[in-house]
Design brief:
The structure holds two protein chains of two kinds. By secondary structure, chain A is mainly α. Chain A is built from five helices and no strands. The chains are: A mainly alpha, B alpha/beta.
Chain lengths: ~100, ~160
């Protein structure tokens, strides 16, 4: 699916999680100036897994604990608003958590 | 609005002036939310708010029940010895259940998230403390004027 045809909400989060693919994530990330490596994927897939299980888009604390990626590293991997960037690239809604 | 950062960078300044357990969290949570959303954040700990970053007090902050109309128990009982400690312990337990980190861990998390923490010079003088009495995440000790200069263009929240 091309980026233009994607359905997103008003803030740019993917409307339908099934529209997501790894290729799409690559494309979204590079649009945000992020080159996805193994560490990025671990974080993104963890976020998607938690959202899939709980139905609630996780905050950084949950993602950090579950993926065993320190908060500090997450901020290095996704500078400038990691909670938003992760949710957007992982194709899940805006996080519902404050932590 | 996009997150890719062509607009002027948003920034948040939080002034933490209270040292009770319940009033420590709002400022920390707001600063953390700012960082998660890509907003620069700095915190200024002043007066009783210094307790939040005081090495000796950070793990022992107490709920404020007396004189708090929202307290779940009558003021007369809240004032009895040990009641505030008990209520604080209960609240800590509830927060742990919700996975809200204790204050010390929260301060570390903010530091890891790139928020800048500052102590208030005048408050330190007043309480006869030095920077060494504060947790290492506190970057510097500033005057209120320094903090204002730093907060140019920022949104300011007073807690």
């Amino acid at each position: 699916m091309s980026l233009e045809a994607l359905q997103t909400d008003a803030e740019g989060y993917l409307a339908n999680r099934d529209d997501w693919s790894e290729e799409l994530a690559q494309e979204l990330a590079s649009q945000m100036g992020i080159q996805l490596g193994d560490e990025h994927w671990k974080v993104l897939k963890t976020a998607r897994t938690i959202e899939g299980e709980s139905g609630s888009s996780p905050g950084l604390r949950k993602i950090s604990k579950r993926s065993e990626t320190p908060i500090k590293s997450i901020y290095k991997l996704f500078p400038d608003g990691p909670a938003k960037l992760i949710a957007k690239i992982a194709g899940i809604p805006k996080p519902k958590s404050c932590l | 609005m996009t997150d890719t950062g062509t607009e002027k960078k948003r920034s948040l300044s939080v002034i933490c002036s209270k040292g009770s357990f319940d009033m420590a969290y709002p400022g920390l949570i707001l600063a953390n939310a700012a960082r998660m959303a890509g907003v620069d954040a700095r915190l200024f700990f002043t007066f009783w708010g210094l307790d939040i970053v005081n090495k000796k007090k950070i793990d022992h902050l107490h709920l404020n029940l007396v004189g708090n109309p929202s307290a779940p128990i009558p003021a007369m009982i809240a004032g009895l010895p040990g009641v505030e400690a008990l209520a604080t312990a209960q609240m800590r337990k509830e927060m742990e259940r919700l996975d809200i980190p204790p204050i010390r861990e929260f301060i570390e998390m903010l530091d890891d998230a790139g928020a800048d923490l500052y102590g208030c010079q005048m408050a330190l003088d007043m309480f006869k403390l030095t920077k060494d009495d504060l947790v290492p995440q506190v970057k510097d000790v500033l005057t209120a004027m320094d903090f204002m200069d730093m907060s140019e263009g920022a949104q300011i929240i007073f807690v």
